[in-house]
Specification:
The complex is a heterodimer of chains A (321) and B (291).
Chain A (H helix, E strand, L loop, with lengths): L6 H29 L5 H6 L5 H11 L5 H13 L12 H36 L4 H15 L2 H15 L15 H35 L2 H8 L4 H38 L5 H11 L2 H28 L2 H4 L3
Helix pairs in contact in A: 1-4, 1-12, 5-8, 5-10, 6-8, 7-8, 7-10, 8-10, 9-10, 10-11, 10-12, 11-12
Chain B lengths: L4 H4 L4 H10 L3 H18 L1 H4 L31 H37 L1 H15 L3 H12 L3 H28 L2 H9 L3 H37 L11 H7 L12 H25 L7
The chains are: A mainly alpha (321), B mainly alpha (291).
């Protein structure tokens, strides 16, 4: 700690190191859980009727006759350079997943761009008008949104906006040949569903972060000085609540991951989530591993960002003595 | 500290519990009534359902609502209402069994880790951390694709993953209790670790875990529904609410709300359980830091 010039730097570096370590552990879990497969997966590809010779030839072709540790290192090295091996269907995993990854990332990014400012705004409103109608309405809808399955929300949205009102297409099968406006138009329903699933939770957490700051003595002092309530929230509470807010927002984005899988399936959106479900049905192990690695990386990444933001935004660490 | 809690609990556990429920807020009472109604339907499904779970009763798939088939028929011409009722039994019982298994594993390991401490505690805690660093749904999908999705596999995988949450809470709560005199006394008496865990520690940490139990039940229930909806959970012909939505989803594009009924049934139960959990959490909020 004393060696580095700034305690924040060393804490952030330490946290990134921890993130990389957990990524390594996750990659171990993902790779070696496949080793538990009863029998080899060469026979799983070829089916029950395969001759032993065919299985042996397949194992040779897939490199399965090498020790698991060597295969793990090769897989990890490949993954780090963007090569995730061959799918059982015979195509490189990256050609299958690459365009889908772009689709999923754009879906998640657009959702986040809308959700984050909206959630913070509503959270501030809730904290400002604590106990009033908007506050109670949003706490109740949080309870509902953690209880309602994502596919229910998705189908209700589809039912109302696509089937009854016919404003949007019910299937979001976007293709590269479409122009951007058309793609965006087709993405409206999945984005709306994701927003509904995630927003109430984010608002509730933002509200809680602000309210915990509001309970501190200096806020009370500002009130006693006679500052109006709105100003107390914006000027006094908010700056100190930014760290906690940012970290709960990042955590909620991590929570978005399982929602993405279900919603991509409902709207037939060509993303990684749907690719993973297809791969699970076909038992296409390399694709499943790649998808799991992608999702786990995103998950760990969001958690990492949440932690780094809360470290960096801590004013006590910014001004070391 | 008064440790004679056995003597205190003698004047009627049941009456005290009833009095407690009487004091519950309206939302919690509503939640309990709904949960009881679901339990009733689940237990008496064979007597309540007009037709059999897997019996094809009509030649017309996706038939509309009629006097004969109140909610119409599904994609194979089975009675939708009957499958909905049997679905209550299957969905709830599987989620319940999973919750109980994960609760037992998580609590026992948590108390064990807290009591033994040292390197054993470290190893178990690090394994739990590793399991928790992959999103649950993704992990379950991966394992199911390897072992195949049968009901025992589903229960076991979800139970193990969920037990990590119980482990965290039970361990944290047990650490506070483990250093108290009555635990020391039991150790000195030469009681086994299991006996101490079950008889001395468990009753003292139960209030803290109770709300987590309800929350995890909801979570498991929703996970199983989501997996079945994705086609990798409970397999046909077993009636399950998530897969009923999936199988009949085509009706939604025709403006028919029937497939939404099982989904609404899932949501309604989860909301009811959460109402009860909310009340338990508020009651325990003085004790429970996990929130």
């Amino acid at each position: 700690m004393r060696m580095t010039s700034h305690p924040i730097l060393s804490m952030v570096i330490g946290r990134i190191g921890l993130g990389l370590l957990s990524l390594l552990i996750v990659s171990l879990v993902i790779f070696f859980s496949v080793e538990l497969l009863p029998g080899s997966y060469a026979s799983a590809i070829l089916g029950q009727t395969a001759t032993p010779e065919a299985v042996a030839a397949m194992e040779e072709k897939l490199g399965l006759n090498q020790p698991a540790v060597l295969r793990y290192l090769a897989w990890l090295g490949g993954a780090a350079t963007g090569d995730l091996g061959m799918s059982f269907a015979g195509r490189p995993v990256m050609t299958v997943l690459g365009p889908r990854l772009m689709n999923t990332v754009s879906l998640a990014a657009i959702t986040a761009l809308i959700a984050v400012p909206l959630a913070i705004m509503l959270g501030i409103l809730c904290a400002r008008f604590r106990g009033r109608f908007i506050d109670r309405f949003l706490s109740t809808s949080t309870l509902a949104s953690i209880s309602v399955p994502e596919f229910f929300v998705a189908y209700v949205v589809m039912m109302v906006l696509a089937v009854k009102l016919q404003w949007f297409p019910s299937m979001a099968g976007i293709r590269n040949s479409m122009d951007f406006g058309e793609q965006l138009y087709r993405m409206v329903l999945p984005i709306l569903t994701l927003l509904l699933v995630i927003l109430a939770h984010m608002v509730r957490n933002t509200r809680a972060a602000i309210l915990s700051v509001m309970a501190s003595p200096y806020v009370e002092m500002a009130r006693l000085k006679g500052e109006p309530e709105g100003r107390v929230v914006m000027r006094q509470a908010l700056p100190n609540a930014i760290g906690p807010i940012a970290s709960v927002v990042a955590l909620n984005l991590a929570y978005l991951i399982s929602g993405v899988v279900v919603i991509e399936v409902v709207f037939v959106y060509p993303g990684v989530g749907q690719a993973m479900i297809d791969a699970v049905r076909n038992r296409d192990v390399p694709v499943i591993q790649a998808c799991a690695l992608i999702f786990a990386t995103a998950y760990i990444g969001f958690n990492l960002i949440a932690d780094i933001i809360s470290i960096v935004s801590n004013p006590r660490l910014l001004h070391p003595r | 500290m008064d440790q004679s809690f056995d003597a205190r609990s003698v004047p009627g556990r049941l009456t005290r519990a009833l009095r407690l429920i009487g004091q519950a807020p309206l939302t919690a009472k509503f939640g309990m009534v709904v949960v009881a109604a679901y339990a009733f339907v689940a237990v008496f499904a064979p007597w309540l359902a007009p037709y059999d779970e897997v019996e094809v009763v009509s030649r017309i798939p996706f038939d509309g609502w009629s006097a004969e088939h109140l909610l119409g028929t599904d994609q194979l011409g089975r009675d939708f209402l009957s499958r909905l009722i049997y679905g209550a039994r299957n969905s709830i019982s599987i989620a319940l069994v999973t919750t109980v298994i994960s609760f037992v594993i998580g609590c026992l390991l948590g108390m064990f880790a807290a009591l033994v401490g040292g390197i054993v505690d470290q190893i178990i805690s690090r394994i739990v951390d590793a399991l928790m660093s992959v999103p649950d749904l993704i992990f379950i999908l991966m394992i199911l694709s390897i072992f195949g999705s049968s009901i025992p596999n589903l229960i076991l995988i979800i139970a193990i993953l969920t037990s990590t949450r119980f482990f965290r809470i039970a361990r944290a709560a047990a650490l506070n209790v483990a250093s108290l005199d009555f635990v020391e006394a039991a150790k000195v008496r030469g009681e086994s670790l299991l006996w101490i865990s079950v008889n001395e520690i468990f009753p003292n940490i139960l209030p803290l875990i109770l709300s987590e139990l309800g929350m995890r039940f909801c979570f498991i229930f929703l996970s199983i529904a989501a997996l079945s909806f994705l086609g990798v959970g409970i397999q046909p012909p077993t009636a399950e609410w998530g897969s009923m939505v999936r199988d009949n989803a085509a009706l939604i594009n025709m403006g028919d709300i029937t497939p939404l009924i099982p989904a609404a049934a899932i949501a309604f139960l989860a909301i009811a359980v959460n109402f009860v959990v909310d009340w338990l959490l508020n009651r325990a909020s003085g004790l429970n830091e996990e929130g």
